[in-house]
Amino acid sequence: MKLLILDAGHCLSLALVRLASRRGDTELVVEPGLDLTAERLAEVSPDALVVPPLTQPISAEPAMVLAHAEAVESCLAACAAAGVPLVWCVSDQLYEDGFETAIDEHVIPAPRDESLRRLITTGDRIREGYRRHLIVRLGPLFALEGGSAWLSELIERLMAGEQVRAAEDVIFCPTSVDAAAMALLGMLQQQHCGAEAWGAYHLAGTEPVSAYTFASLVRTQLETRLEGIGESVALGPIKALNHHHDQPLRRVLNCRRVLEAFGVHQKPWRLEVGRMLDEWCKARREVEA
């Protein structure tokens, strides 16, 4: 199976490259940005095109959101003309106001923000105009490297002694980028073998948590590991923010459909954080040695 991946520096793209390098059944061609011509798509002739998500679209500049939407729609036109499946990954932030219960795949986001609505328009065009698509809604991604690698940015700020401000009243399911990459390749391998299970799917980690609790756990585990290797570092503090004073905003994705269709189980984010922190400490010791 050959995949064409856009946005080479994105943490999800890097995770896909790492995973594919350990497998013998997947070939990746990676493009630096989101610009893709029909000629380039025809030249590569992939079995699917994968577009990583625009991370944190709620806080992104409107021009950036618009550019992302237009790039995805250009990819849609090229894929439809060439008969190449399109995989578009999107942030759970499109569910701007959250839900009291876990959000099922059939629930299409209806944000109030104009920029976010532009992304919904793109999703509508994909669903209405091209059957061979996967819209994969992801929880907040965390990774050790790449663009939008939340965990690496968090570690860097803590190590610098900076205060980290994180919402205490926004609940979501952090998603390991490595787990997301493994799930995506598994889904696409099954599609390549004739599964024909197109549509929207949710991918997220288990155990809903606030950004504040997530950051606090990372800080505690990082401190413990540094002490274990004989380092004493004054890590930056975590400050809780509250934006929703009436009740917490819950943005929790129900991932039942991806389990039923592809057998994909969600990975506990706590275990993934621990594994990544072990990798970070190992790399740190190797550099110092």
State the distance separating the first and last CA atoms.
40 Å
Fraction in beta strands: 15-25%
Largest sheet: 6 strands, parallel
Radius of gyration: 19 Å
Order of helices and strands: EHEHEHEHEEHEEEHEEHEEHH
What is the general shape? globular
Number of strands: 13
Tally of DSSP helical segments: 9
Instruction: Give the proportion of residues in helices.
Output: 40-55%
User: Strand order within the widest sheet?
Assistant: 2-1-3-4-5-10
Which class do the helix and strand fractions yield? alpha/beta
Residue runs with pLDDT of under 50 for 5 or more positions: none
Global mean pLDDT: 94
* Oligomer state of the chains in this structure: single chain
Plain-language structure description:
By secondary structure, this protein is an alpha/beta fold. 44% of the residues lie in helices and 17% in strands. It is built from 9 helices and 13 strands. It has a 6-stranded parallel beta sheet with strand order 2-1-3-4-5-10, with helices on both faces. The protein has a 3-stranded mixed beta sheet with strand order 11-8-13. α3 (62-82) packs parallel to α4. The chain is globular, with a radius of gyration of 19 Å. The mean pLDDT is 94.
Summary?
The protein has 289 residues and is α/β, with parallel strands linked by helices. It contains nine helices and 13 strands.
Comma- or semicolon-separated keywords:
289 residues; alpha/beta; three-stranded mixed beta sheet; 9 helices; 13 strands; 17% strand; dTDP_dehydrorham_reduct
